[in-house]
Amino acid sequence: MDKVNLERYSCDINVGLNKNQLQSRIDDNLINAFDNGKTKTYKQIFKDNIFTLFNLINIVLVCLLVSVGSFKNTLFIFIAVINTIIGVIQEIRAKRLLDNLSVIVSNKVSVIREKEKKEIDVQELVLDDIMILKTGNQICADSKVLNGKLEVNESLVTGESDIIIKNKGDFLYSGSFVVSGEAFVRVENIGKDNYANKIANDAKISKKT
């Protein structure tokens, strides 16, 4: 659905989404379900980077040059080897990032719906849900602080090692952890649009340079 024309719900933190609003989000598939898929194995990474058409052509050229005694002209093969090594390193880093992001995903989250506090699966979150975040919780969807104060560790998703203080109106990145505090927050992005999922997807499709 086009976010520009999407109706947003600004619910009271003590009320949350009502039954009709929730059903509307479900009908529009605005739920927090997204599968990043399985990452490649290390064996697949090495195989995909070594056994390529480009490398095959280079090997054939080297063999032809060696056969005619033109050893100086075979130096280009070192560039191909370096390129392959860089590709392997990048994909291994991407795999580790993807694996880390998938391992830390929480299973449950506290929300306010129809004036009641409920525990639901992370995948059941919908856009504009009111979440309650406390010390130790993982932020499982991009959200905005509506009430309260949090100290957040964003190191996994932003690389920032310092603890970040989040007050009313501040944005929270999915994949981060609440170090201390408590707050009511509104879900701003879900599924593939979440910051953590975008990082994971970008890492998956990263190419050799």
Average per-residue pLDDT, rounded, comes to 87
> Number of domains in the coordinates?
2
Give the percentage of residues in beta strands. 15-25%
Low-confidence parts lasting 5 or more residues at pLDDT below 50?
none
CATH superfamily of the largest domain: Calcium-transporting ATPase, cytoplasmic transduction domain A
The end-to-end span amounts to 34 Å
Quick one: overall form?
elongated
- How many extended strands? 7
Largest sheet: 7 strands, antiparallel
- SSE pattern, N- to C-terminal: HHHHEEEEHEEEH
Q: What is the rounded Rg?
A: 24 Å
Helix/strand-derived category reads: alpha+beta
Number of helical regions = 6
Which CATH first-tier class of the largest domain would you pick?
Mainly Beta
Helicity, as a percent range: 25-40%
CATH architecture of the largest domain: Distorted Sandwich
CATH fold call of the largest domain: Calcium-transporting ATPase, cytoplasmic transduction domain A
Subcellular location: Membrane
Protein name: Cation-transporting ATPase
Main location: membrane
Keywords: Hydrolase, Membrane, Transmembrane, Transmembrane helix
